[in-house]
Design brief:
The chain is about 30% helix and about 15% strand. The chain is α/β, with parallel strands linked by helices.
Length: about 210
């Protein structure tokens, strides 16, 4: 059962879990289901932002399909593609989305508007996560780990040993309060997924 919730919807309602819950309900998404986020290019910033905001909204389980749909088809799995406009004479065969009640239970610990206000168990490290370092950086320890250095050209996470090498080389300790930021928060969300994948215990995205 696939539904389309554009990245623009997540961006528009990023600061309001209640509004996002309304939009998800209209699309037929239920909070008690597993939501698998996919794009046509693996772990993109927009896919990662959807992951972060679904998790924040209280989705029971959220996953990201980290390969392209072309790769999915190459592996022999079924892919349904829309018929060309000229050939689409009959009714659609895909099930139509029906509105649902999205029982949101917002979790805000991984999404912060004021990074200076957080108090983790470990020392705080700010990680610039975009392709370019933002012009304004916070006071404190700041390192740069562009999310694009941690994924393959196809959008899949690189092998764990390569991720550890890149993250540790940048100066991020294994135990830290990791606060991710970027000019585009979706790029920070991509690193959120990757740092969580690698088992970092305290990871946050700073929505600036």
């Amino acid at each position: 059962f696939a539904v389309n919730v554009p990245a623009s919807v997540f961006r528009q309602h990023a600061r309001s879990p209640a509004r996002l819950a309304e939009a998800l309900a209209q699309a037929g998404v239920k909070a008690g289901d597993e939501a698998v986020v996919f794009s046509d290019a693996g772990l993109t910033p927009d896919a990662a932002l959807a992951y972060l905001l679904l998790e924040r909204a209280g989705q029971k389980k959220v996953s990201v399909f980290a390969d392209s749909l072309d790769r999915w088809a190459e592996l022999g799995f079924e892919v349904e593609r829309p018929a060309p406009a000229a050939a689409a004479a009959g009714p659609a065969t895909a099930p139509a989305a029906t509105s649902a009640t999205y029982a949101a239970k917002p979790r805000g610990e991984a999404f912060v508007l004021d990074a200076a206000s957080t108090r983790g168990v470990y020392s705080k490290v700010y990680v610039a996560s975009g392709r370019a370092t933002p012009a304004n950086v916070p006071d404190g320890k700041v390192v740069q780990v562009p999310f694009s250095d941690l994924v393959t050209a196809g959008g899949a996470p690189k092998p764990a040993k390569d991720l550890w090498t890149a993250i540790s080389k940048a100066g991020v300790p294994r135990y830290a309060e990791v606060v991710l930021f970027a000019d585009d928060p979706a790029e920070a969300a991509a690193n959120y997924f990757l740092f969580k994948l690698m088992g970092f215990p305290d990871v946050k995205v700073w929505w600036r």
